[in-house]
């Protein structure tokens, strides 16, 4: 299975056709809300925003969000959800159709860069470095990857066959000099038997 744009467009089109109302009510990611809930709102990038629940939560808290995804269907749904919530939230979001295989944030532009559960087609280290370059000094990088194997059972998870960010690769990509690691650990997922998430929360020092 190739997790390319056609795959995701087909997946989102089907899911949104069958369960669009439920998707619009998906809560923001719990690791994210815990990590950035106390940050002062500024400019944020949500890379691989999908249905947009994290983007919407950030915008509702006053963040000016650039939300990137390569699925037209997901972006259209997320935009429509934002408009339903209200003009103030919708007005703080810039929805961008782009492929993260090459899409590069403007250097140092964002106070927060998040990238959650995005399959990486190329090198994880290269992708992490490209996203990290968008973080301003003093800003936050927040990455989550679903690990492909459940360490508790050795069984494949729903992310089996995917390349997502891991703690080791993210730490290696960022190095130690310019980043403070607030969190860099594997955490069990709330739903038993679905494996663990690699959670990386780093603050750019310079
Ligand atoms: C598993 S979903 C995660 C969505 C959201 N970040 C979340 O945590 O709920 C992965 C998302 O990444 C998007 N995606 C995957 N590869 C991408 C790429 N190369 N460029 C842009 N978006 C991509 C997909 O369209 C999908 O919306």
From TrEMBL:
One of its GO terms (molecular function) is methyltransferase activity. InterPro entries: Methyltransf_25 (IPR041698), SAM-dependent_MTases_sf (IPR029063). Pfam families: Methyltransf_25 (PF13649). One of its GO terms (biological process) is methylation. It comes from the Bacteria. The keyword Transferase applies. Keywords: Methyltransferase, Transferase. Residues 45-139 form the Methyltransferase domain. Transmembrane segments: none annotated. This is Methyltransferase family protein. It comes from Pseudonocardia hierapolitana.
